[in-house]
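Example 3.2
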Amino acid sequence: MARISTDGSIVVNAPVDVCVAAIKDIVGEGEWIKELKSIEAVEHYDDGLVKKAKLTVDIVKLGSDTYFNEYEYGPNEMRYRTTESSLQKEQFGAYKVKDNGDGTSTFSVEITVEARVPTPAFVLKPITNTVMKGTLTAFKEWVETSRV
């Protein structure tokens, strides 16, 4: 089975605090990630941030999957790890935000995924890259039109 990692970044015309608030709004991801059909917070940290969520996605060529993610947060980042999934053996990743010093921010995404069923890398890599690129552009559009 293939284990695929990919990453990318995009400049967002928004200050870092706005972008950081957006990456920590886990349930809000349902507003901008088109593959995400539903998301529900099932556990929170004492500060109110989501600790665990149940997500349902529909990924072209892979199908529908309902899974659980656990989240950790740093000052300018959110990290997640998939704990239960029917299609994924594992997935983990991070959203990071860097202040560019000019009122813009750089939003970065890192994703590593391994399918539960044998899936060749030449099939999984383009799907993972499409998801990563879609996440970057959707986040930028959502933040710039809805959050600023």
